[in-house]
């Protein structure tokens, strides 16, 4: 899955070297980033002209040099190993005193750079799979903002915090659903049995603000890369295989 998604991204960048890219973090992205680094190191993917990168979210509060930060994860897994110009990287600052100003500026930066051409996303766990940290009930019109994380999300992410939920921040800064929907192209990655219900809820069940990821059904240009387990409950997929 990671390799396929990296190949799609690499081919997009080869065709659009000045692209503006949106990245996501989390367990699903690990193999994707490793494969993207491989595209650069082994297959000469040049990222030097990428005009901007924007990350989906960051914990709040969170210092950028904390090893639990998405800032740290992005540099460690991708940015330190490819030739993206570091001046063009935009990650929400989880140590800001003024989240509102920070989020508004992030929105402005996206616009200033001509929007996001390719946004990569993971999806959260069922029964209300999120995208970014847009949790259950997030308005489809939501902009980049400070949000409170649900107990389920903090439980799911405790594995990155020594399995101690108390260590998982209670809040996060996240790109809004409206912001994500403005991206020209969206690439969704899903792997593992845990995401089988998420994929069905997101891509085949009714569109509702209760299920933030279901908004993606209204986007004209979404590519989903899923492994067999994550795709196992998609009816359209089994129909496609039958024919
Ligand atoms: P995961 O998270 O890749 O760690 O499962 C995905 C998400 O919450 O969007």
Q: Key features?
A:
243 residues, alpha/beta, Rossmann fold, three-stranded antiparallel beta sheet, 9 strands, 15% strand, globular, binds 2-phosphoglycolic acid
Structure description:
The structure is a single chain. This protein has 243 residues and is an alpha/beta fold. The protein has one domain (2-212): Rossmann fold (3-Layer(aba) Sandwich). The chain contains nine helices and nine strands. The strands form two sheets. A six-stranded parallel beta sheet has the order 4-2-1-5-8-9, sandwiched between helices. It is globular, with a radius of gyration of 17 Å. The mean pLDDT is 96. The structure holds 2-phosphoglycolic acid. 2-phosphoglycolic acid binds next to loops.
The overall average pLDDT, rounded, is 96
- The radius of gyration is 17 Å
The total count of strands amounts to 9
Would you tell me which CATH topology applies?
Answer: Rossmann fold
Bound molecules: 2-phosphoglycolic acid
How do the strands line up in the largest sheet? 4-2-1-5-8-9
Low-confidence stretches: none
- From N to C, what is the helix and strand string? HEHEEHEHEEHEHEHEHH
Q: Mind summarizing the main beta sheet?
A: 6 strands, parallel
Number of domains: 1
Alpha-beta content class: alpha/beta
* Alpha-carbon distance between the two ends: 23 Å
Give the strand content.
15-25%
Name the overall outline. Answer: globular
Tell me which CATH architecture applies here.
3-Layer(aba) Sandwich
Q: CATH first level: which class?
A: Alpha Beta
Helices, by number, come to 9
- Range of helix content: 25-40%
């Amino acid at each position: 899955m990671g390799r396929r998604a990296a190949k799609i991204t690499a081919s997009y960048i080869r065709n659009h070297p000045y692209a503006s890219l949106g990245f996501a973090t989390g367990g699903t992205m690990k193999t994707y980033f490793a494969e993207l680094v491989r595209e650069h190191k082994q297959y000469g993917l040049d990222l030097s002209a990428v005009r901007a990168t924007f990350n989906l979210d960051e914990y709040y509060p969170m210092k950028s040099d904390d090893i639990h930060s998405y800032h740290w994860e992005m540099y460690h897994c991708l940015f330190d190993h490819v030739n993206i110009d570091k001046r063009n990287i935009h990650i929400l600052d989880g140590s800001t005193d003024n989240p509102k100003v920070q989020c508004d500026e992030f929105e402005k930066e996206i616009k200033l750079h001509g929007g996001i051409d390719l946004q990569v996303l993971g999806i959260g766990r069922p029964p209300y799979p999120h995208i970014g940290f847009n949790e259950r009930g997030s308005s489809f019109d939501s902009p980049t903002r400070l949000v409170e994380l649900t107990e389920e999300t903090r439980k799911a992410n405790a594995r990155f915090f020594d399995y101690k939920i108390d260590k998982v921040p209670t809040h996060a800064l996240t790109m809004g659903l409206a912001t994500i929907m403005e991206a020209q192209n969206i690439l969704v990655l899903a792997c593992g049995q845990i995401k089988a219900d998420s994929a069905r809820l997101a891509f085949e069940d009714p569109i509702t603000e209760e299920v933030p990821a279901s908004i993606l059904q209204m986007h004209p240009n979404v590519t989903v890369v899923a492994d067999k387990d994550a795709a196992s409950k998609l009816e359209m997929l089994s129909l496609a295989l039958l024919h």
